[in-house]
Specification:
With 417 residues, the chain is α/β, with parallel strands linked by helices. It has one domain (26-329): Glycosidases (TIM Barrel). The protein has helices at 2-20, 42-51, 64-69, 92-102, 127-146, 177-192, 203-209, 216-219, 239-253, 281-296, 382-395, 398-416; strands at residues 28-32, 54-59, 76-81, 111-119, 154-160, 164-166, 174-175, 197-200, 227-228, 235-236, 261-266, 311-313. It catalyses: Hydrolysis of (1->3)-beta-D-glucosidic linkages in (1->3)-beta-D-glucans.
Length: 417
């Protein structure tokens, strides 16, 4: 009975979808830094990105190998123009050539949606760099206009939270006074071009510099009393939300309360030097695991409860050639060999190997018990991870993994039938 079989399938899909999909829509971004000499090839990174349910990737450059590998994957990209190129972009011809080679060439197969011009430029206090920032942003934008791409590709720059003079309480957030002069034209530009304001926010730094005063649970999104901002009366149960709302306040104080704020970086290192308090595997696991759950729940901050968080986790890989303290080389969710740096408490991320290809047809076996320290060889194949990825994190229950997988299979058998 073809009809009843179809009906049965359709009914199942509808009811299963109804069960699972409403909770899965938050969209995860990940930073793909490559200051390392031991990372997997970009082709092998595609399944890793999918395994954590990430649909957005941020690069610090416009690596052609990466942009090619992610063609036709549906993953959205932010590409970066490094600080060292800002001065060159004062020349419109050069800006035009850069956009042609690094952006236009990959569209539309690779969904490049944004270009960040420089990273944390304003907090270097280097006027020779700062002076080039806004002109470079303008010229890159003009290049996009000339190529008819300005409606699909935004131009912005990513800031360090240190551009704030006051970040606590959130309602008192304000920009460093000496930066207001150069931030204002940038804000005006972002507003006019419909582009987001990007901030890199690390509760880890706040905790590290003041571990006696700051509650670890508050910074790690663990259950805690939280704080009440006495001016706004808003309750905060985690530091990241307080930091984001401080940015909202700073923007509002200059008249840009409507500018969308995206978190271009946040994360927690799994290892650090002896003086880097809090940089442990357990803490990284809690911070990033809880963060991903919050993103998937589509929670907003107390000041913007109905606005999705737009967060790019830092970072995909541990990067062995980064200078600085040990923590700098240990922000990755993955080790260079493609295994998880630690368990995020989320099924599917623990066992995906960069070596496996998407043609693997391994089926899902019995769920492994939660592994506290990662790296138990996996029950979840890449091909499965790819299909179920967005649901995986958000369900966070073994049950959902099975439901979603059978949903995928059902869909196929229905189409065939
Ligand atoms: C930049 O200047 C500000 C304000 O004068 C200061 O607080 C900050 O430490 C400086 N940053 C660097 C990296 O020198
Ligand atoms: C990946 O595959 C290569 C060649 O088959 C092998 O030498 C290497 O050990 C594998 N790496 C991992 C992480 O499985």
């Amino acid at each position: 009975m073809e009809y009843s079989r179809f009906y049965y399938c359709a009914l199942l899909i509808i009811s299963i979808s109804g069960l699972v999909f409403p909770v899965m829509v938050g969209s995860i971004g990940i930073n793909y830094g490559q200051i390392a000499n031991n990372l997997p090839t970009p082709d092998n990174v595609v399944p890793l990105v999918k395994s954590i349910g990430a649909t957005k990737v941020k690069l610090y450059d416009a690596d052609p190998r990466v942009l090619k590998a992610f063609g036709n994957t549906g993953v959205e990209f932010i590409v970066g123009l490094g600080n060292e190129y800002l001065s060159k972009m004062r020349d419109q011809e050069t800006a035009q050539a850069w956009v042609k080679t690094n952006v236009q060439a990959y569209l539309p197969a690779t969904k490049i949606i944004c270009i960040t011009i420089g990273n944390e430029v304003l907090t270097f206090n280097d006027t020779s760099l700062t002076d080039h920032l806004f002109p470079a942003m303008q010229n890159i934008h003009t290049a996009l206009v000339n190529l008819g791409l300005d409606k699909q590709v935004a131009v912005t720059t990513a800031h360090s939270l240190a551009i704030l003079e006051v970040s606590y309480p959130p309602s008192a957030g304000s920009f460093r006074k000496d930066l207001v002069g150069c931030i204002t034209p940038i804000l005006n530009f972002l507003c006019k071009t419909n582009s987001p304001f990007l901030i890199n926010a690390y509760p880890f730094f706040a905790y590290k510099s003041n571990p006696k005063q700051i509650s670890l649970d508050f910074v790690l999104f663990q259950p805690n009393q939280g704080i009440v901002d006495s001016k706004s009366n808003l309750h905060y149960d985690n530091m990241l939300f307080a930091q984001i709302d401080a940015v909202h306040s700073a923007l509002a104080s200059l008249g840009y309360s409507k500018l969308p704020v995206h978190i271009s970086e946040t994360g927690w290192p799994s290892k650090g030097d002896a003086d880097e308090v809090g940089a442990t595997l357990e803490n990284a696991k809690k911070y990033n695991g809880n963060l991903l759950k919050i993103i998937c729940q589509r929670k907003g901050t107390p000041m913007r409860p109905n606005t999705d968080l737009n967060i790019y986790v830092f970072a995909l890989f541990n990067e062995n050639m980064k200078p600085g303290p040990t923590s700098e080389r240990n922000y990755g969710l993955f080790k260079p060999d493609g295994t998880a740096a630690y368990s995020l408490g989320i099924r599917g991320t623990d066992a995906v190997s960069a070596n496996t290809t998407t043609t693997t047809t391994t089926t899902i076996g019995a769920p492994a018990p939660p592994s506290p320290d990662s790296s138990s060889p996996g029950y979840l194949s890449i091909s499965a991870a790819v299909k179920v990825s967005p649901c995986l994190l958000c369900g966070a229950f073994t049950f959902d993994v099975f439901v979603v997988v059978s949903c995928t299979n059902l869909r196929m058998s229905c189409l065939v039938a």
